[in-house]
Write a structure and sequence with these properties.
Rossmann fold; single chain; SIR2/SIRT2 'Small Domain'; 10 helices; binds adenosine-5-diphosphoribose; 6-stranded parallel sheet; 2 domains
Length: about 260
């Protein structure tokens, strides 16, 4: 592992454009469960209950969705960025981060110090709520207060439309600008680092493939194997926080 840590640090030091791509595995060390590990979100809830079409068509689905989303939000609201988030924020401070493509909705990259302009939230964010009709945005906490006061499926103050956390559910279209820009950056970088993702959900999982196809080196830091391992230049299987902390230590040593 030590020699791989040194190899990745050298790749970062020599790279002109580093793209970091993360999934829920980056946030498990902050106490937020991922989706597909044992005990993850999909062990607890049925993905079908998060389906966007159901949310749109049935009040009962909206109520069930808000009950589950409230439970998940409570784990995120007070979560702290861990060593992995802090290392990625450090990369930006060192001027070595072209952009961060995240599938996570927990807002921890901003708490860690990454700037909004460098982060693409492919699956939206749980920190805001949006009206599905007029697209008015709300802070999440005031809407949670309405839920706590008994409003089981809140509606928009402006137009009466259904409110939903500003996350992307199965069946809901991805944010066009963020997705297009993330694909463009993936194809233009010379180093693509995946951290804490099973790489099974598309179109996000296509990005490391595009990067590799465009000539970038591909590094995968993940506890378990992924379908992209066969095209990776370096694979580090283990805890993201500890591995990223060691890599940044080496990057800073190389720079002095
Ligand atoms: N360190 C390193 N890797 C970890 C850690 C950790 N501490 N904890 C978990 N992992 C790895 C797991 O081995 C797993 O391969 O992170 C990966 C998490 O995979 P998923 O749970 O599938 O999460 P993700 O890849 O982000 O899922 C993508 O699926 O359900 C949708 O919208 C949801 O954005 C999510 C998308």
């Amino acid at each position: 592992m030590e020699d791989k840590i040194r190899e990745v640090a050298r790749l970062i030091a020599n790279a002109k454009k580093v793209v970091v791509f993360v999934g829920a595995g980056l946030s498990t060390e902050s106490g937020i469960p991922d989706f597909r590990s044992p005990g993850g979100v999909w062990d607890k809830y049925d993905p079908a209950d998060f389906d966007f079409h159901n949310f749109l068509t049935r009040e009962s689905s909206r109520e069930k969705y808000w009950q589950m989303a409230t439970e998940m939000y409570e784990a995120m609201r007070d979560a702290k960025p861990n060593a992995g988030h802090l290392a990625i924020a450090e990369l930006e401070r060192l001027g070595k981060l072209d952009c961060l493509i995240t599938q996570n909705i927990d807002g921890l990259h901003f708490k860690a110090g990454n700037s909004e302009t460098r982060v693409f939230e492919l699956h939206g964010t749980a920190m805001h709520v949006a009206c599905l009709d007029c697209h008015r945005r709300y802070e999440r906490d005031p809407i949670q207060e309405r839920i706590a006061a008994g409003d089981r499926a809140p509606r928009c103050d402006s137009c009466g439309g259904p409110l939903k956390p500003a996350t992307i559910s199965f069946g809901q279209s991805m944010p066009e600008r963020e997705t297009a820009e993330a694909f463009r950056r993936s194809a233009e970088c010379d180093l693509f680092i995946v951290i804490g993702s099973s790489l099974v959900v598309y179109p996000a999982a296509q990005m490391p493939v595009e990067a590799k196809r465009s000539g970038a080196k591909l590094v995968i830091i993940n506890r378990d194997a992924t379908p992209c391992d066969k095209i990776a230049n370096v694979i580090l299987n283990g805890p993201a926080g500890q591995i990223m902390e060691s890599i940044l230590q080496k990057v800073k040593e190389e720079r002095v």
